[in-house]
Amino acid sequence: MFHFDRVLLFVGLVLLPLSTATAQFSGSRGGVSDGRHSLPGLKTELKALTPEVAQGYITIDGQVELRVKPTEIRVVLAVIAEGKTPGECKQLVDDKIKSLTAGWREMGIARNDIVEDFISVLPRYEFKIETIHDREVAVEKKTGYLMQSNMHLAVKNDGQAMIAINIAFENGVADIIAFDYWSSELDEIKAKARGEAVKAAIEKSEVLLGALFEKLPSIINLQEATRVHYPKSLYESFTNSIDEEYQTTFHSRREIPQIRMFRPKNTYYRGLFLDGDVQSKELPMQSEISVVSTVRLYFESPAAKEYRMEKNDKK
Q1: Cα(190)–Cα(276) distance, rounded to whole angstroms?
Q2: What is the value of pTM for the model shown?
Q3: Residues near 78 by Cβ (< 8 Å), separated by ≥ 6?
Q4: pLDDT tens column, 275-289
């Protein structure tokens, strides 16, 4: 009987629907809400219009997202050196830059695509214990200088950027300040996005207004806004962790240092998930520039003239 029960349990699991038997994927971000997106299944709330607006005009929006593959990437790295004098700092920085430039030139990067941006030379201080009037005093003393120069490097794509960064690592440079993506086609893409947004708004108005009115109302005005979203603004960080912890009287032992374990940084390229009329048909798998254009068309309400006449009569 025991074995028969096990067989029944196995058959039951096999016959379960696939969606029930398999695990549901969510990743570390599962259950974390950033407050910008409503929960699945909630109805979109449309705010009631004032009588003046409802009887004055009708608005129809068209929104389009077009993704652009970058044609260039600027990588900014900080070259830092410490020395007892400013001159020593400069020599150390110059040596690193010379070695970096040679490596980047060897991989095929043009000299004009490598630019040095001097940032600063700052003094460094340390406290030293001295005895003044039979009393120990912590006195601040200048111990040297710290110099920083940023290197701006223009590369064609992510692959070339990683090769350039590996060369920097080999030369002891690991401070990556920024990745800035650019496209020489942005002006053309913005113009295209505007046209697509106008088309989307017109098509939506024909569906909505055409189903309700024999003749489409007249367009009396419009608004347009086009915005470029660069990859640096499309990364997302979140906090979602369950830290296991056990404590007794540990914190009463203040002489014992506390060392916490490393936890991965929950930052990833989220991309732009736009709830618009036209959006990309591909997942945001790599860094791209998103151009979003919104066009709002204002149609005169069929009740507008009558509403204005009633309003004037009341005056």
Answers
A1: 16
A2: 0.75
A3: 119, 148, 149, 150, 151, 173, 175, 176, 177
A4: 889 988 889 998 999
Are the beta carbons of 200 and 63 closer than 8 angstroms?
yes
The residues facing 141 across adjacent strands are 126
φ, ψ at 218 (rounded to 5°):
-80, 145
* 81-117 per-position pLDDT tens digit: 999 999 999 999 999 999 999 999 999 999 999 999 9
pLDDT tens-place string over residues 4-17: 455 444 444 444 44
Say which residue the tokens 């070259």 belong to.
Answer: 79
Q: Report the amino acid identity of residue 306.
A: E
Q: Which of 230, 218, 249 is nearest to 178 (CA)?
A: 230
Burial of 153-180, coded b for 16+ CB within 10 Å and e otherwise, reads bbbeeeebbeebbebbeebebeeeeebb
Q: What's the angle, vertex CA 36, arms to CA 35 and CA 41, rounded to 5?
A: 90
